[in-house]
Amino acid sequence: MIVITGGSVAGLATALALARQGRTVLVLERGGPPPEGPPGAVAQRWKRPTVPGWRHAHTLTSLGVSVLRRGAPEVLAAAVEAGGVVLDLVQAMPPYPLGRVAGDDELVSLACRRPTLELVLYRHVRDLPGVEIRHGACVRGLEVEAARVTGVVCEDGTRIPAELVIDATGRRAAGRSWLGAAGIGLPDDLTSPSRLRIFSRFYRRHGRAAALNRGNAAGLLGDHYASVLHPGDDRTFSVALGVLPEDRMMRTLRDPAAFTAAALATPGVADWLAEDVSTPATGIRPITCPPNLLRTLAVSPSPVAGLLPVGDAACVTNPLYGRGVSLALAHAFRLAGLLTAHPEAGPAQSRAAARLARVMFMPWFEAAAEDDAERVARWRAVMAGDPPPPRPGGLTMRTVGAVAGTDAYIWRGLIRVLMGLRTPSEVFGDPAFEDRVRRALGGAPPRPVAPGPTRAELVSTVMAGAGS
Q: Residue 368's pLDDT is what?
């Protein structure tokens, strides 16, 4: 039997992939089961205090949709039946060069709230033969014999033997502490600060939807803040405002009037908030984003066999980029495939799992660290009234994005990176792509895009809103 510790997206997806191979799987989940009823309604009442991003803005990128299309089409169909919408990103493509090309069909995303998506995934996995989901079960440690994990120990003292333990405990990455308690140390994880505080709110749409100027979203990633709208299931959408955690002037975004004022000041978002279009469905929900983390236990062969992390227990990147759930789904299915080739816990399995995690996560960790460092430097300069930092020498998301709206070839490359289908080095490192971007950067100025409020204008807007 394989024991999976944690019953969120990564754990559930791993259980699904393993069950389809005929494996017997036990999922141990600390929280309680979800309520019964229509997913779009009852999922929002499912209490998940151990999932930090549970009630915040969410999107499933092209990578996640492609994983579900291939590995769990029933889950994707259930999400759509629950009100989710598969968005065709090509509709936002610039007109030159004209026409669709091969591969454009994969440029989609799923507009669906995280609780709704997780509930339909949960119900599908719960009903699979060979899978048991045990709620209220908190693992406190591992049983280790002869450099091999042989089971887990729960808080109530229950000992559960296992041929393999999958750590799906999310950002806690509890495997490190379990090994530490067993006297097994690990090198430090790789970490890089994200430096982002997000305030989000959900709305219910009762009028016609406005345009999405970013394909699967509306809004902007500006030079001193971010304001992004994501459509969800069941005629809902979210607005997320991102600022530096140390930005004292933006702390008033907790206030609904200040939040609304800032959202209304953002091009692409204001049209969605008209009184005849939508009304707020929740209060303001703040969250300070965790640092980007690449776990040693994931990318280096484990000192003990039989313990493998998946999803956020392997790598965490800034949720601003919307990659987490899609990467977790992809990792779950690829890890299950790896276990077909390496079914026995041992050094070969550990090495193969570490190689897989390095290939899957290292590019995204490095990209998040680079993009966050560049963004934080710009935002801090604007906040302090200093000159902007020099443009990086190589291509970045920002430099490519500056001209993506003028050329469909460049746009497609950027979208494939943003949607997780290709890594930055695969696209930005291509000489033909780089040459095209640099020619566009040095040629005619990009088509004008509404830049959003200046720092002074946003501060004034927020202060006025808070005082109203």
A: 96
